[in-house]
Amino acid sequence: MSKIVMKFGGTSVGTTEKIAHVANRIRKEKEKGHDIVVVVSAMGKTTDELVKLAHEITESPTKREMDMLLTTGEQVTMSLLAIQLNALDIDAISLTGWQAGLQTDNVYRNARVENLDGSKILNLLEEGKVVIVAGFQGVSSDGEITTLGRGGSDTTAVAIAVSIEADICDIYTDVEGVFTSDPRFVPNARKLEQLEYDEMLELANLGAGVLHPRAVEFAKNYKIPLRVRSSYVENEGTILKEEVDVEKNLVVRGVAFESDIVRLTIEYEVPFNGSLASIFTTLANNHIDVDIIVQSIVDGVKPTVSFSIKKESLSEAITVLETHKEVLGFTFADFEVGLAKVSIVGSGMVSNPGVAAQMFDRLRKENIPVKMVSTSEIKVSVVVPQQNMILAANALHDEFKLGLSQ
Amino acid sequence: MSKIVMKFGGTSVGTTEKIAHVANRIRKEKEKGHDIVVVVSAMGKTTDELVKLAHEITESPTKREMDMLLTTGEQVTMSLLAIQLNALDIDAISLTGWQAGLQTDNVYRNARVENLDGSKILNLLEEGKVVIVAGFQGVSSDGEITTLGRGGSDTTAVAIAVSIEADICDIYTDVEGVFTSDPRFVPNARKLEQLEYDEMLELANLGAGVLHPRAVEFAKNYKIPLRVRSSYVENEGTILKEEVDVEKNLVVRGVAFESDIVRLTIEYEVPFNGSLASIFTTLANNHIDVDIIVQSIVDGVKPTVSFSIKKESLSEAITVLETHKEVLGFTFADFEVGLAKVSIVGSGMVSNPGVAAQMFDRLRKENIPVKMVSTSEIKVSVVVPQQNMILAANALHDEFKLGLSQ
Lengths: 406, 406
Fold this sequence. Notes:
The structure is a homodimer. Chain A has helices at 16-31, 46-57, 63-87, 97-100, 119-126, 152-163, 197-205, 213-221, 276-285, 314-323, 325-328, 355-365, 389-399, and strands at 3-8, 35-40, 92-95, 102-104, 113-116, 130-134, 137-140, 145-147, 168-173, 194-196, 226-230, 238-241, 254-267, 290-296, 304-310, 332-345, 372-375, 379-385. By secondary structure, the first copy, chain A, is of the alpha/beta class. Chain A has two domains: 3-174, Carbamate kinase, CATH 3.40.1160; 255-399, VC0802-like, CATH 3.30.2130.10. An eight-stranded mixed beta sheet of chain A has the order 3-6-2-1-9-11-12-10, with helices on both faces. In chain A, strands 14-15-13-16-18-17 form a six-stranded antiparallel beta sheet. The first copy, chain A, is globular. The two termini of chain A are 41 Å apart. The model of chain A has no long low-confidence stretch (mean pLDDT 89). At the A-B interface, helix 1, helix 2 and helix 3 of A face helix 1, helix 2 and helix 3 of B.
């Protein structure tokens, strides 16, 4: 008998029919004698619809109230799933984030898990209940409702797995596992049987969209076996672990991409005075995630620094920068929208210096301009025009022989 | 400067456009310097839609989980209203039932308010904030989410008014006040300027649909001035107080009606053995509201007892009765659906014995059969076929000269 956390994403619970299907999956695991905790996201497009309602009112809704609004989505799913399980004579109980004891800091819309006391869940499991917990949401120490940011339900699942010392944390999704690239856009993409936490971390951070990076980080830190599986197809999915068997000696293991990137450029009229740190501290204090940072200081030319953020953070980033313009010591800021990021990832890359060059060469052959470059030990990212994103991803997937037919 | 509780019902907040209108109403009161607490219901048909989702799964969803499900409705409204007020530069904060400290017993779907510590709301008011509280919902002492039953948002509003010692509790609704009858079905109905708590209580209990009876009871017990006003038309509405000025010496002050009534009849094969109390205790323990009870014991005829319940409680009532059949000592139970209740209400009725006779006479003239009768000091109710309900209401409204043109 094992303790299992099963997490189902929004598309897996998009209708009451799909919820019935999920309940059936849960019943099968329960009948094997396992203790089951289920974590659910909001149904289908619910979150988008709630965001749309708020945006009918204003373009910049209060973050606290957005958390109030959005947390209703998971609450609807969890109660419907509990109703469905109870209707199948499976004793099930749903818990909101605060009821489950998922405590976070008080950063609205992007809170971090601070603590999760698993005792309430463990008590309910001992009573034989299937415990369903609302993903994505928590409560701060002063009783404020918070959300964990995009994809935060994965984090909830891993946090619960840690708190109850679960044997495995299964992330059920609409894909069969982690692929070498997103098969919706890269038709040649292939499912990976295994992947290292770090590789997944880069893929997740780069927007592969399968798992939330914080969830992977969490799982890595606590060595929780994490499995990405399909809600529909009953196969083994992709298992994340610390070190994987080398497949075909591939240096690159995946190609990730992310749309709606904006590049901001700041130019200094006066000599550069070390305010680089100040800019990014200010942005961080305002919870604007900066991704790639490129700085260029050339003699005789005004120093500039460019960085990329998500499109949705643009209006706030500009407000923050304008407000702090004088303190930060710059006099001009520009931005370029309509960009995307494409990255290659693989832990073997560190010992293979030619990979980046091979990447740039292929992009040049495809006539794709590179706007920014960033490298780490296990990945190389480029920022390209949005309209070239899919072409770039497919070309690189082909270049590094990741496909099914290679 | 006064402390005002403003409660807005579902139709008043049915769209973001309507929420903007409500925000404007709140702004006007705030600009007068008042401290404002707002209580909101779920938007328009949200609750119905959530119930429909649950019923797609099963006809008898778990009550606990239904409360989980339904409480999301008010949470959506309150956060959107807070977003709207903040967008108008009015400092506003929304609170769920548990955050506001509205503590109830743990009867799911029909909980009673046990306590409301107003200190959190008062602190927020002191900070100059408009405080928005989700109506209809509370939390039990063991942290379970509960709902106050149909129309419970009114109760929330009065409970808050009591806890913060508000000067007035304004119930904003889609009608301009309390009418002599429901103007949607009785075209000749007229708005009342004043009404006694007790009369309102009978009207509310009888399904006049303007105010929840518990809310009126609450207001009466704590002598909270309660005003029913229109969300759209800016007039004074109807004020509820202990004793009102007699208008035109009318004995009857209103005609109320309620559809979807079911009459259950129980017959005893064995001599009646005092199990009458047991039946209604059993039904009460299962939280089935029984309204009219009629008992008839005639020599030589088997004793019967008939009682009316709401249609929605029928399946549960039958289950409960079947389960307890042997203990309760009856051997036959029957029911009649398709019924409605029509009542006349007025505190002057007690000193006017001919009122009931006049009522029956008029119904006879209209060829409306009377299935059950129940009387109290300030009302007479009859159960009639559902298809005669509107005719009966209009006829009685006319009979007792309640109309505009009389």
